[in-house]
Structures are given as C-alpha cells and as structure tokens.
Design goal:
Helix content: 55-70%
Number of strands: 3
Radius of gyration: 12 Å
Structural class: alpha+beta
Number of helices: 5
Strand content: 15-25%
Shape: globular
Low-confidence stretches: none
Strand order of the largest sheet: 1-3-2
Distance between the termini: 16 Å
Length: about 80
C-alpha cells in the first residue's frame, strides 16, 4: 500500500486502523476490496516509526477494546 494514500486520508481526519481501512475501501472502490487489514496496520506502523504519524490510545466503549487513533505529525503533514 502506498504510504502517501494513508497520509492523505489521515490529513482529512485522525482515524483508528479499522476506520481508516473502511475509508480506504470506500475511496478506492473495487481496488480497495483487495485491501486487507494487515496491510493498513503495517503501513501505519512504518509511518509511525518514520515519525510521520503518532498514535494515541482512545478509550473504547464497554463492549470494545481501546483503539489507537492515528494522526499526522508536522513532518507527515509536510510530506
């Protein structure tokens, strides 16, 4: 997956991985159907290690676990 696509999606609004995957699938249409969750999380991890995104834990509802919400850093916004 192209990192620039993920950065562009996060530029619109911070998202957790599952939400980001759904937005990507919707935006990419048929191409997005082949997208698996693992690809999204691998890309997010690489972007985080590169200092382009940060991840903060958000408290989940009682029936859901906490989630990492990803957002761009200033370097990520520049790129």
């Amino acid at each position: 997956m192209q990192q620039e696509v993920v950065l562009a999606m996060l530029a619109k609004e911070p998202s957790h991985g599952y939400e980001l995957r759904a937005r990507l699938r919707h935006a990419l249409g048929p191409l997005g159907e082949a997208l698996n969750a693992g690809q999204v999380y691998v890309t997010l991890t690489r972007l985080e290690k590169a200092g382009l995104v940060t991840a903060d834990r958000s408290t989940g509802a009682a029936d859901r676990p906490d989630r990492k919400v990803y957002e761009l850093t200033p370097d990520g916004q520049q790129r």
